[in-house]
Design brief:
By secondary structure, the protein is an alpha+beta fold. Helix content is 43%, strand content 22%.
Length: 436
Amino acid sequence: MTSLLFFVVASFCMVCRGSERDVFLHIFDKYDNRIRPVKETNTTTYVGTQFQIISLLEVNGQQEYVKMAVFFKLNWTDEYLTWNPADFGGTEYIRAHAKEVWTPNFAIVTTSLATEEFIPKEEQILGIHYTGGVDYSFPIVLTNYCPMQNDDFPFDSQTCAVKITSWKYTSRFVFLEHVPMINTGARNPNTEWEIMPHTNKSYDLTREGAGEDGVYRQIHYYITFKRKPTYYIWVIMVPTFIISALSIAGIFAPFNNSGDREEKVTLGLTTLLTLAVILSLVTEAMPKGTKLPVLGLFILMELVICTLSVATSIGISYLHERAVTRSWSIPKMFCFSFKSVACCFKTVNASECKVIAEKLTDKKHSILVKEKSNSGINSSMQHLESTLNDVKRWIQRADEEEVRKNHWTIIFDRVDATCFIFYELINIASLVIALH
């Protein structure tokens, strides 16, 4: 029983193989793959096209091209490749080498370089249905021209058009038409780019001087690549923002309790040097174009902010030094706020005044001891009292001068705080604008 079953199965397999071979010999007898497969010359061959991206290999912004592995699927009807399945053991579908069958003169007009075939055409296989339907699928590596718009880098997206046509046949003889696919996205994702589902449009183009029969059918597949900006945000933009923010805080923070401003210019120049190095590194990654992209504008804005903050700090230091050493009067608006009379006097050396007062006090004491019984004691006392009053006024003025210096320090501290808030707000605004 087992031997009988094995014999039946083996016989069936031999019939199947023999039927497929018989179909092949039958349909390719006197078949010419150089001739368009229609029995009437005026019959149009409709070629359905499908397109899918396998993976994105390279995006070259400077030379404006994208390199990707793509998959094309064509189907059409060959009127000479038909048979009756009943005559060949029920065989409805066979496979054959593409070189032995007529194929549309398929061309990609937007390619920048010659396409690279995964499988040579001599080895490619296509499928043939008993009704004459031919399914031809093949993958290629396509280097396609793609004009780049890099103004929004690294938040940019690029749209490229893959244009296909029949190079030899006009639409009267070969008419290309798109066949929808369920999945129009890429099979393999890319780490730097997000590949969006592609769209398509069909156009009828007339070649110059070709007449009525010079209309060619073109199908344009529009592919959109959206850049993933995460790397540029966290590796370049955020560190640059933090460096600028800390630099502004250091420039407008008091160096010590006395309000001195040492090392602020050095800090600002060091920050500018750091930002210049970052900009030089980013320049290598940024695509070249007529306009500076968003990332370049952001770093340039940070440079401008730090430069202006350093210049402002230098100006404040200059004014502070002049106000203290040149005995500038405090403006009345600040006098009211301080509620002090130290706004209207000139500078006097307090230490010298105190020494004079001590000497005069000793002198007064000695005079009082020696001239107790003198008749001129009254006049001497009056003279000493006048001298001591002058000294007291000088001491009072010296104290007021010290108060004035402290008031100027407070004023410029407030100016520093205002500038700090102002430049930090600009810094935050520049980051928010760049991210949006």
